[in-house]
């Protein structure tokens, strides 16, 4: 492969149409040529690590020049990054130099939420937290403390909270993100699509993206593979109410009415089954309940779907035939953030079923079977059993919420109601619950019921503004973390290791979690003195060592089969042991055994559906103060169709506020009047409109979609929160 061409295409997709260039602007100060030239200079030092600018964990090489952090590149040995980082990863050094970073432990003075703080020592902060936790335990039991966590950095906090005796550990990545997808695929194939997704995009001959904007939704490996698929001439089908960057690469673009994906998926399946275009041998060998499935989808013709989706029947047929033509190397991407309309697990199940018809599961160009290295866990003492069990899902209201930690909103509800038992302490690690959970008011109401709110983060997020204690964490370039033993197409172990010292009084997560455990009298759960001992123990028991992995940052294993055709066992962990076209377990629980369509609620007159998404240079709301990334995008705009904008007398660059159906008013936001969006919706990039005053660079810049998401629809299968059910109108008085 021509690496230069490939990199250029990758960057083109990641920044296309938005005018961003990694090779120019602020990041251009760090050119690859300068790197090569300076590599021979005496003052240059390289240290491999892995990126934490998002959860993808790409292998990277950090450069120091004269002892100072200088630049970061991809680690060519790493199967995830393959030597290339995305714009956020390249801008990672800005996280170290961010002037808005938390610098020292802070304790609240005055009312919660007033954002008035006293700087304290680590001992004072941790003694206060440990005392409060012991009081909560004595009065309510250990289950009354919950942890909300995001990313691999939460590993040691989970360990401490489990050792303390609480099973209430939740992550927004399930109920506010990919939970419905994994539920839908599990119900169909008996396995989820894991993370990184087991999608063989690189070898797909036809790639269908339905609500998944690869390129803006910047997951490095996938974008590189998307670029390869395009280069190899794969047919791209994009379904999106907004003409995304991915849409600009598509052979077929379907500007669907928001909320009607299910109708399109059912119609596609109807065409593929009626025209006998499915992989008959595969369905016969692996399918369960196909004839019942065929009967269920019979009414959903393209003509039926047309008024729902606004997609012409001919286009539905043409795209169904196109995806069938390339089977089994025809991949319907499962997406990632899929908590939209409240029927999201069934929507994902429909995507899984469509893939099953195309025979793509377990096949080249479809879904491969991921492999991993065998690295034994550290032999800790067993955790104390919980008498009360998890608080989040009483009476198993959401039967498929199980096995994924606790539900975030379930913990929030229990905190407000005290049912099934009281929750009195929250630990919040690296997730901004105010923006991650729908309905900010409910989150703030829950906080009022707490005796203890601890936030651990690198920057002062909105949830930190409500904390009793804020603990400043070292950024990823200043710390070790848990080993990354990934399930992927190539087996590998990756190390995160410190490149530079923390500039102020920040501490690594493992140190904070260990010290807290010691103050709680739980020292037996941390028999090691330094994380290096822990890492070395695990690596030695896998046949390697810390000294060995520190050199390259990566240890790779031998290639293994990843497709059925290569000898991967064709097993399905469903009740029938087959691909469940018709699900008896769903039927027994009172759910539809084959997905059905429910039309979305229409917008009130004069309102437009609020859609939100990602930008390739920011990760959620966590990077807006990073000076390198903020230079590329320091506020968002609201996308409005030109015809609608004209009706309100608006043009690109005008400033307005958005008002939602419940009267919540956003910050000021600039208008982008464009033909690249339907007339019935508007679009915001998530993560802007910050209101924590300590975020000086990002304070009040752009509008927060999260603030406008006051309503949500709960998925009856797994408890996810559908958030695309809010509508906004425009307030001209900016
Ligand atoms: S996708 Fe980008 S931000 Fe995320 S880990 Fe990889 S390089 Fe870092």
Report on the architecture of this protein.
This protein is an alpha/beta fold. Among the domains are: 106-175 and 392-476 and 508-544, Rossmann fold; 190-370 and 574-588, Dimethylsulfoxide Reductase, domain 2, CATH 3.40.228; 608-731, Barwin-like endoglucanases (Beta Barrel), CATH 2.40.40.20. Helices cover 31% and strands 16% of the residues. The strands form 7 sheets. Strands 5-4-15-14-13-6-7 form a 7-stranded mixed beta sheet, with helices on one face. The chain has a 6-stranded mixed beta sheet with strand order 21-23-22-27-20-24. A hairpin with an 8-residue loop joins strand 22 and strand 23 (669-674). Helix 6 runs parallel beside helix 18 (509-519), helix 9 packs across helix 13 and helix 9 packs parallel to helix 14. The longest helix is centred in the N-terminal third of the chain and has 19 residues, at 122-140. The radius of gyration is 25 Å and the shape is globular. The model is unreliable at 1-40 (pLDDT under 50). The protein binds iron/sulfur cluster (SF4).
């Amino acid at each position: 492969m021509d690496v230069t061409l490939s990199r250029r295409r990758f960057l083109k997709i990641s920044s296309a149409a938005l005018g961003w260039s990694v090779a120019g602007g602020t990041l251009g100060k760090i050119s690859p040529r300068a790197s090569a030239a300076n590599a021979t200079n005496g003052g240059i030092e390289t240290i491999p690590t892995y990126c934490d600018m998002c959860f993808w964990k790409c292998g990277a090489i950090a450069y120091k020049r004269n002892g100072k952090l200088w630049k970061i590149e991809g680690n060519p040995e790493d199967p995830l990054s393959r030597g290339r980082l995305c714009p956020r990863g390249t801008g990672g050094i800005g996280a170290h130099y961010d002037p808005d970073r938390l610098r020292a432990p802070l304790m609240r003075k005055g009312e919660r939420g007033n954002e008035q703080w006293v700087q304290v020592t680590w001992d004072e902060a941790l003694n206060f937290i440990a005392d409060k936790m012991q009081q909560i335990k004595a009065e309510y039991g250990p289950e009354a403390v919950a942890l909300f966590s995001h990313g691999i950095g939460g590993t040691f906090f989970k360990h401490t909270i489990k050792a303390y005796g609480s099973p209430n550990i939740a992550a927004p990545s399930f109920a506010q993100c990919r939970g419905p997808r994994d539920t839908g695929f599990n119900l169909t194939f008996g396995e989820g699509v894991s993370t990184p997704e087991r999608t063989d995009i690189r070898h797909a001959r036809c790639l269908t993206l339905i609500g998944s904007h690869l390129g803006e939704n910047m997951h490095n490996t996938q974008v590189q593979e998307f670029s390869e698929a395009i280069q190899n001439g794969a047919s791209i089908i994009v379904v999106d109410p907004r003409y995304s960057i991915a849409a600009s690469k598509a052979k077929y673009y379907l500007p669907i009415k928001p909320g009607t994906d299910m109708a399109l998926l059912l119609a596609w399946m109807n065409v593929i089954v009626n025209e006998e275009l499915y992989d008959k041998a595969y369905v016969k060998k692996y399918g369960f309940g196909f004839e019942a499935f065929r009967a269920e989808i019979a009414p959903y013709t393209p003509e039926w779907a047309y008024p729902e989706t606004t997609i012409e029947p001919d286009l539905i047929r043409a795209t169904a035939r196109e995806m069938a033509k390339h089977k089994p190397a025809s991949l319907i991407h499962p997406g990632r953030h899929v908590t939209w309309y409240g029927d999201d697990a069934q929507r994902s199940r429909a995507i899984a079923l469509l893939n099953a018809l195309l025979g793509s599961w377990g096949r080249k160009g479809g879904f491969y079977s991921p492999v991993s290295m065998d690295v034994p866990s550290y032999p800790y003492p067993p955790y104390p059993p919980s008498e009360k069990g998890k608080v989040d899902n009483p009476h198993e209201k959401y039967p498929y919420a199980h096995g994924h930690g606790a539900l975030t909103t379930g913990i929030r509800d229990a905190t407000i109601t005290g049912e099934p038992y009281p929750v009195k302490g929250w630990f919040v690690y690296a997730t901004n619950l105010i923006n991650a959970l729908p309905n900010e008011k409910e989150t703030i109401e829950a906080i009022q019921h707490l005796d203890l709110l601890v936030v651990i983060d690198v920057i002062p997020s909105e949830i930190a503004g409500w904390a009793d204690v804020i603990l400043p964490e070292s950024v990823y370039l200043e710390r070790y973390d848990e080993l990354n033993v990934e399930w992927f197409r190539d087996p590998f172990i990756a190390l995160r290791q410190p490149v530079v010292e923390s500039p102020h009084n920040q501490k690594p997560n493992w140190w904070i979690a260990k010290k807290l455990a010691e103050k709680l009298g739980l020292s037996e759960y941390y028999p090691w003195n330094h994380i290096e001992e822990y890492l070395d123990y695990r690596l030695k028991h896998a046949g390697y060592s810390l000294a060995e992995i520190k050199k390259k940052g990566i240890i790779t294993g031998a290639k293994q089969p990843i497709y059925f055709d290569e000898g991967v066992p064709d097993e399905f962990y469903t009740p029938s042991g087959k691909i469940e076209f018709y699900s008896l377990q769903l039927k027994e629980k009172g759910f539809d055994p084959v997905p059905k369509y429910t039309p979305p609620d229409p917008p009130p007159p004069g309102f437009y559906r609020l859609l939100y998404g990602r930008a390739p240079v920011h990760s959620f709301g966590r990077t807006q103060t990073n000076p390198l990334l903020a230079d590329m995008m320091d506020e968002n705009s609201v996308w409005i169709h030109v015809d609608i904008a004209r009706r309100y007398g608006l043009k690109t660059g005008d400033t307005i506020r958005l008002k939602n159906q419940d009267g919540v008013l956003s910050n000021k936001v600039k208008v982008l009047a464009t033909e690249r969006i339907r007339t019935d919706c508007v679009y915001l990039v998530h993560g802007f409109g910050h209101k924590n005053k300590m975020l000086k660079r990002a304070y009040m810049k752009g509008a927060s979609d999260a603030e406008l998401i006051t309503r949500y629809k709960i998925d009856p299968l797994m408890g996810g929160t559908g958030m695309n059910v809010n509508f906004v109108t425009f307030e001209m008085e900016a």
